[in-house]
TrEMBL record, chains A, B:
Claim: DNA-binding is one of the keywords in the record: yes
Superkingdom of origin: Bacteria
NCBIfam families with a match to the protein in the record: HTH_metalloreg (NF033788)
Keyword annotations: DNA-binding, Transcription, Transcription regulation
A Pfam family: Rhodanese
Organism, scientific name: Ancylobacter aquaticus
Keyword Transmembrane helix: no
GO MF: DNA binding; DNA-binding transcription factor activity; thiosulfate-cyanide sulfurtransferase activity
Span of domain HTH arsR-type: 9-103
Full protein name: ArsR family transcriptional regulator
Length: 234, 234
DNA sequence: AGTTCATTCGATATAATTATTGAATGTGAA
DNA sequence: TTCACATTCAATAATTATATCGAATGAACT
């Protein structure tokens, strides 16, 4: 038969929990979670960002919807997906922590961006917040402009990684620069900090990204509706 | 070739994270996590508790070890597995929260044990701790004796679910009873509370189980080595 | 040495997941 | 209606996960 087999209550709970973990158990779907954590997105936009076929992304998103990770709503021709809950981001974070504790590979990737182990320490959210209030720091958001538009740290300036080189002359050299991007392991901010230091800047990473900042209940600034592509756009 | 394909740093991180989630993405492995959260266990003991073939459990445990969820050490003829980290329990908890937010099935299982939605509210850890200090409550641990021996709430008495009926006369009727077992969704404590209420007792569940109590840094009592089977025993 | 027993390994069969096509659906606009 | 377009569906093939069985390993005991 097509339906599920008979299980006792205990087993059926484990099945439910396992379904959630299974939906997170795929690299592409985790990447989708990270992108959706920046803000709602259409299937097409996600497929472009990940460089995957649209049908493939559509299927992953449906799997995630069945597991309760995302929800979707139609907006004209577009279907926008968004994270169902803050709990999804929390689960992703918890899984990252397990991997950090275990995996030498995670460590190795980070080491690739810095020669010395010291001074790669990130800035905590609270530390950054207080230094921002005192005006001691330049905060740069190295994500693409469309993600910046959906929300960013108050006062942050958008310096997409691809434009870092051309925008370098505009940055003050007398203040520390703090870079952030999508999350704690988003490589763009690692690259930005490495590049800035090579050019003589004093630069550090924020410990994690915009979604965690928002989830911590801290203020987020948005670009007023204008020339930037809206949700559901191409 | 046999090796993995070439990936950029970002992708290889997602692969690491996904491996952890994938290792949690199976009902039997989640059940193993819950049992290992009570204390270290041999393959044989776990297989007996889950009612699965030993070879099957062995393979699941090896998959979990590859993902960094568990570690193992040999003790004579036995190999004892234990959770690698508190972070594993935290990840399990985070996944449960996502499932609770989404799944009508989880809700349904709970409703099965209680007729009315009210007064199925569980007792929080802090509330229980303060009521224990005032001596206002009888705490019963409904897990099997071997799990009780590895650690339990201070002053709790072991009333395995199978023996609840015969031990009922020994319970005081003038104090509230709080039951707990392996974790927040361990059905044994649901059953115990339902049975106790049917018999006229005032009974509630602790919000979660012993592992969470221990992880919160609260005191845990142990049975001194004696007639109870030690770790790695049959 | 030989035996016992817990665990792991290997081989096999079955099932589930994944990526990839091209066709189908549903929406908005001409 | 007809078209263009975003998304989903259906079918396929390749890969991976899972359960099971008997054989192999490795430690303790006689």
């Amino acid at each position: 038969m097509v339906g599920m087999s008979i299980r006792n209550p205990k087993q059926s709970l484990y099945v439910q929990f396992a379904a959630v973990a299974k939906a997170l158990g795929n690299p592409q779907r985790l990447e989708l979670v990270e992108h959706l954590a920046q803000g709602p997105r259409s299937v097409d936009a996600l497929a472009t960002k990940l460089g995957l076929p649209i049908a493939n992304v559509s299927q992953h998103l449906q799997a995630m919807r069945r597991a309760g990770l995302v929800t979707s709503d139609r907006n004209g021709k577009f279907i926008n997906y968004r994270l169902a809950d803050d709990s999804v981001l929390a689960a992703f974070a918890a899984i990252r922590v397990v991997a950090e504790h275990h995996s030498a590979e995670v460590e190795r990737v980070v080491r690739g961006w810095f020669d010395r182990h010291d001074d790669m320490e990130p800035v905590t959210r609270d530390e950054l917040a207080s230094r921002m209030k005192e005006g001691l720091v330049t905060v740069i958001d190295v994500r693409p402009a469309d993600e910046f538009a959906l929300g960013h740290l108050p006062g942050a300036i958008n310096v997409p990684l691809s434009e870092l080189g051309s925008l370098l002359p505009d940055l003050r050299t007398d203040r520390e620069i703090v870079a952030y991007c999508r999350g704690p392991w988003c490589v763009m901010s690692f690259e930005a900090v490495a590049e800035l230091r090579k050019r003589g800047f004093s630069a550090r990473r924020l410990e994690d990204g915009l979604p965690e900042w928002r989830a911590a209940g801290m203020a987020v600034e948005q670009v007023l509706r204008g020339d930037t592509a809206a949700v559901g756009g191409p």
